[in-house]
Amino acid sequence: MSATHTSVLATELPRPVPQTELDACPVSALFRRLGDRWSMLVIILLGGRTHRYNELHRAIEGISQRMLTRTLRTLEADGLVTRTVHPTVPPSVEYGLTDRGRSLLVPISALADWAVENQNPSGRCGT
């Protein structure tokens, strides 16, 4: 682990941790974003290549159009996803990762590797 990572983990937190500090923490914000049901999956899919909206919708079983739209808008507002409108009739829209979004693939991959290596024998999470 690099010095950048250990400095965060080595920081002594106040006890109790103030809610305002937790809410303002960029690490908490990242885990909230990646911890929602769809964001990490969208980031991973876009890590392979750009996708049109309907491609993404077909690639993610169980996501509603409303939730996919909301997830893409949030990831775009966070600077992780780009939305490119091509001037065709009808307009064609593609989604891809920004450089910032691509840089997130490395730690996501590390977390995924850890989860696979440390899964319960039952294969279920948290039990």
UniProtKB/TrEMBL annotation:
User: Which keywords appear in this protein's UniProt record, sorted alphabetically?
Assistant: DNA-binding, Transcription, Transcription regulation
Q: What residue range is the signal peptide?
A: none
Please report the stretch or stretches of sequence annotated as the HTH hxlR-type domain: 25-123
Question: What is a single Pfam family found in this protein's UniProt entry?
Answer: HxlR
Gene Ontology MF term list = DNA binding
Q: Which PANTHER family match?
A: TRANSCRIPTIONAL REGULATOR, MARR FAMILY, TRANSCRIPTIONAL REGULATORY PROTEIN
Would you tell me the protein name for this molecule? Answer: DNA-binding HxlR family transcriptional regulator
Q: Which organism is it from?
A: Actinophytocola algeriensis
